[in-house]
Amino acid sequence: MNSACNDLQRFLDGQMNAGEQGRFREHLGRCLHCEAGFLEGIQLELLAHKALTPEVNRAEDLSPPRPPPPEPGGWKSLLRRRGGLVLLVAGLALSLLVPSLEHAGVDSMSWLVNEGSRVLEARVTYPSVDSHYRPFVPNRGGAVSAPGVEMVPIQELSKLEARGDLHGIATAYLLRGAPRQAEAFLKRLPAAADRDSDLALLALEDARQGGGPVDMHSARLEEALVLLEGVLRAAPRHPQALWNRALVLGELGLSLQAADSFSEVAKLGETGWSAEAEARARTLREETLLRGRQWKAALASTRDLLTDPAAPVPLELAREHPGIVRLGFYDAVRAATTRAEVLRLQPLARALDERYGGQVLQRWVSQVAERDFARRAPLAREYARMVLGTLPPSGEVMARLRDSGEEDLYLGALVRAAAGRHPADVATLVRLGRASEDPWMQLLVEVEQAKVEQREGRWWAAEKRLLVSLETCQKQRVVYRCLSLERALADLYLELHRPAEAFQHAWSGWGRAREALEWQYEQGFLQLLADVARYQHSFTSARAYLGESLLRMPEDCAQRTHVHSNIALLEWQRFRPKAARESLERALECERPLGLTGALTLSEMARSVPSGNDAQVLRRALADLRRGGVSPGREALLLSIEGQFVMEASRDAGHSLIHRSLALAEQEPDGVDARKALAFGYSALISEAGREGDWHEALRLMGQELLLEPVPTHCLLAVSLQHERTLVLVRSATGELKGVFSTDRQEPLHDDASGLVPAELLKELTGCAHVDVLTRPPVHGLTGLLPDFLAWSYRVGRGVQPPAVVGGRSSHLVITEVSSPPSLRLQKLGALTPPRVPDPWRVELRGSEATPSRVLSEMTEASEVELHTHGLYSASMSDASMVVLAPDSDGSFALTADKVRQTRLSRAPLVLLAACGAARTAPFPHESFSLPMAFISAGASAVLASSVEIPDTAGAFFEKVRERIRAGTRPSVALRDSRASWREAHPEDARWLSHVLLFE
């Protein structure tokens, strides 16, 4: 051992420069002591990885507790870096060591292939492994678990590295249960189909084993699907990608699409693999379609009771499918024309009562049996025709039922009228339903009452009613009605453009429907999940959900219209106009109205892929959408859709419709439909002004939409995107206005706006001390819009606000060392460095005191607010990023944009969000929804936040910015100068510094 051995730890930690690494490699090849230490470090690292990734039995617990991470120090600190095990020591040290090794020939790779069953259900692309087929044997109970961590033979890894076989090293780590190392080596490979297929495999395994919120599970599966879609687009017969895609689809519950993907593998004729694929496809398809056939048989059995007095009573089906059988049972009793026909249903009533509890159905059958069938029978026959679809529930027949005294018949007819969007006396429906002793009917009328409240714009009342009813339903275990409540809530939240909450109920309903064997509800929730995924820009998952829905009910024309209309919008949003047009034409094959989604897509496509019959199709869709009356906000949205379409043929007529839309929307600006109408209308008008080169009109419209009065007269950047159209306006230091309008965008704007501003316009801003940036969704809140050498900020309008409180006691509120919920398993953040100078305003909330309710209360009177805590994004909890705080008494721990927006910050504070990804913006096309926007809406004067993950040390950077601002420096200048000095002192932080954004 000599002095060079003291550097082993630095070598393992990757803290040496290139020259030092080369010298230490030479020493390592000669020193037995260091070689032993090197191997020990690798083994310890693998053991640490094993401790951090225990096996997960997903059948028992989807989110098991994990042991805490090791304490910081030495190489172990690698385990604590954000994002997990970024590059484990074994891979790092090996990559530093092996350049001194001699290249070896291609040796046997048998050490990678275990005897017996294979380790992974998925397929790797490494030929030496995949060509040796072995069957997969799942754990008892069918759960799929990660392979246990095994030591990787260092000599074999050295040989692989010596010949530059990074793919082999990645495969070795993957098969030995070390996925993070595998991912690190795969990402060092150039982009290729095999690499992306293996990365998708890693995303699938992470989704299966990771536990945590269900939306994170879905996000990893979306990542896998996107990768596999890219592979199969380039190589449609790629066997591993087809196989792994089937597994991902199966993990999502999309069994028929999974079966189709396995069938494609079976066609390839691979030894072993094709036979297994064929067996898997057959099992998936048969099990799924059998479930559908059984449900349809149950439905048909109840329909038979309406038309055939001798039809068998479906007692066995009532036990297996109690929901749909009970639904048909009500119709069968109402349609019975004699006492005997009613009483023969008593055994079915008894079976259903036994299933649900109580005797409510038996009592009802007895009551109906005592009615005067001389009077009731003709009405019962008319009711049967309503059920069979040959008599609409409207007009004279409804009057006869109303006046007949047969209240159960009238109640059934009112339910059918409401469901079919016919005029219905909802007040009577509610009265009759509530008067019954039947929980099924009482819950049904709550849904109908909520729909009325929703149409009247009282969404908060509808939301409360549905949530209370769902809680009641769960206690009563009326599963079928619970599904209708889950669906109503998901529909409501989607209409309110709150996809995070919609996801909770859609996912819950999807699982419940499968458990309850309610085939039709399965299809409904599939389509809701597709809508949620589309709202969150998870386009590949949305397409998969819709595709599965179509495969399950191909004979249903209404479903085909709905699905293809939604696929058309998805393809349009993915900048595939020809595919969008093809899907829209398929939606029109059933000759049904397109619905709102189809109408919007048709309006958008008028600019690039029009068709001669589009005007007639749009008129029919809009007329159907207006049937039964609509709210002012919905009418405004329909006018904006119509105006955008008409504008392509007649500028003046289109302008007139859009201005009517804007005027109507401004009557209820807080409504979601109204906000969409405003966004879509202004988008069309601004783009039209840009197309005509009228820069002043375009800027005036942007200022009007963003509630910015007056619009800055110099040093201004304004950007508007409307799908393929881009408008960029610049006012220089002298006030000269210039612009560029283009129509050549061919892909969605992602998380970075770099390159969006043309170089010739960027030059106009070089003389500006500060640049105000005006943007509309989806540009607002993106990083990279302007270079770091400029001082700039996003300007946010908020209309008329009460003046900020002046004088009196103010405070500098600091939230730090938060006691986050243990269930999140978040690393404890380090304590803040005490302020360098006395801060008499400083008020700290720490530990368990830093709850959402306490923080919101303290913020109302604060003049400065700093949050030093974890930031999270969870699509199931919030549509924008949220800040993690200590749990309140009700268990809530998240400070969300919704909660902040409902607060009044009376002292117009400066807000510093030193939390990961706090500036992340929800991908909504009609509004910019984020934590910074929420703070500005609540009254903050300026907000500083990062759009990406930041290290623990970032808190000190935010403190530096705050000190400069408190000293009188303009916030944008303080941010620019602090960023430059921090980058010089901490070059390793350059990655995230550019992602710190300012909103004013």
Mean pLDDT across the residues is 83
Proportion of residues in helical segments: 40-55%
State the low-pLDDT regions, or none: 46-107, 875-879
- Cα distance, first to last residue? 60 Å
Shape: globular
Alpha-carbon Rg, integer: 32 Å
Number of strands: 14
Write down the CATH topology of the domain at 812-999: Rossmann fold
Structural account:
The chain crosses the membrane at residues 84-101. Residues 845-986 form the CHAT domain. The chain is an alpha/beta fold. Strands 7-6-8-12-13-14 form a six-stranded mixed beta sheet, with helices on both faces. A five-stranded mixed beta sheet has the order 3-2-1-4-5. A three-stranded antiparallel beta sheet has the order 9-10-11. β12, α40 (931-938) and β13 form a beta-alpha-beta unit. Mean pLDDT is 83; it is low at 46-107 and 875-879.
